[in-house]
Amino acid sequence: MPTPPPRVESKRSPQRPAVANDPVSSPRGRVESLDAYRGFVMLLMMAEVLKLGEVAKAFPQSGVLAFLAHQQSHAEWRGCTLHDLIQPSFSFLVGAALPFSIAARHARGQSTALMTLHAFWRALLLIGLGIFLRSVGKPMTNFTFEDTLTQIGLGFPLLFLLGMRPRKWAWVGLVAILVGVWGVWSLYPVGEPWAKNANLGHDFDVWFLNLFPRPALFEANRGGYLTLNFIPTLATSILGLIAGRWLDDRASLRRSLFAGAAAIGAGVLLESADLCPIVKRIWTPAWVLFSGGCCFWLLAAFHWVVDLQGLKRWAWPLAVVGRNSIAAYLIAHLWESFVERSLVTHLGAGLFQVCGAGFEPLLKGAGTLLVLWLFLVWMERRRIFLRI
């Protein structure tokens, strides 16, 4: 499951974030659109508990359920669904929040050295937390690094260093990663450079992951996901860093819309020209551009509705999740099954069969999702936030 990006707070009045050649700019106040977008993506992830795929199988004649189930699943290889945009959105939002985080820490008087140490500490925590969660229920520590938590953690130190530099370095880093990944993968001596479990990243994992203790020899990731995905995932976060530096006035809306269109167009062009496919599971450069463009558009939509139109009450159900996204991620991983079983135990199985057995997974999931959301509301009311 994807992981949420860290939340950022500041009690200062709205000003420009850290931008351009002045990473020590005064911090802007809380950017509600980032909270709303983060909460929206987190709820999409948590909504896996609705199990729309099971419901659609019970009603094979329903085109609507089939469509919804497809959007709640991952593309087999090439292509994109709504569910596929969860992980890049998290990575994108990490970058978008970074300028405000840097500015807020400068305003509190933190030195560059202290902030750098904190960035590396945060990276280690993300990597460790990701490994811990993937090891739940396993006979021993499950050392893999393809999950979003570890992917963000592996790339975060370099993202932070780029965030401390002038704007041009973000663009340089973005181009270097996209061109470098495309070139190295294309030249790697295998049959098809973008094939599942027959590529540079797969060969690296067969060597790297077997350096760690494990119950059996690592041979392949069933989904095709790779440790080295963290490099192009960093490019997605850099796109977010660029977008976050634009979140200062109405001009940012036009820039984000244009950047989104350009990135989506470039990704589709690479796919159409057979230069690079749009594949999330190995995070191809075309996927970075296509999904990054979608993230630009989603952020632009939330920025217009929440920040520019001021519809904060509309966004509150989302923002309450986005403001406590680490907690939301943890309870979604650790509590979902317990909450669902408890609902059946105390309310009875019959309650969830009132619409027939076919809708039982949906009603159980909706009840579970509501309980988890109410718990996050309870945490917010008591000002309890989990931060990394």
Give a written overview of the molecule.
- The chain is mostly helical and 388 residues long.
- It has one domain.
- Helices cover 62% and strands 0% of the residues.
- The chain is built from 15 helices and no strands.
- The chain has helices at 32-46, 52-58, 63-71, 86-107, 112-134, 148-163, 167-187, 200-208, 230-246, 251-272, 285-308, 312-322, 325-334, 336-347, 360-381.
- The longest helix is centred in the C-terminal third of the chain and has 24 residues, at 285-308.
- 45% of the residues are buried.
**Tertiary shape:** globular
Radius of gyration: 21 Å
In the predicted model, the low-confidence regions spanning at least 5 consecutive residues are 5-27
Order of helices and strands: HHHHHHHHHHHHHHH
Please, what is the oligomeric state?
A: single chain
Number of helices: 15
Number of domains: 1
Q: Quickly give the structural class.
A: mainly alpha
Topology, number of strands: 0
How many strands, which pairing sense, and closed or not: the largest β-sheet? none
Mean pLDDT metric: 91
Separation of the first and last Cα atoms: 18 Å
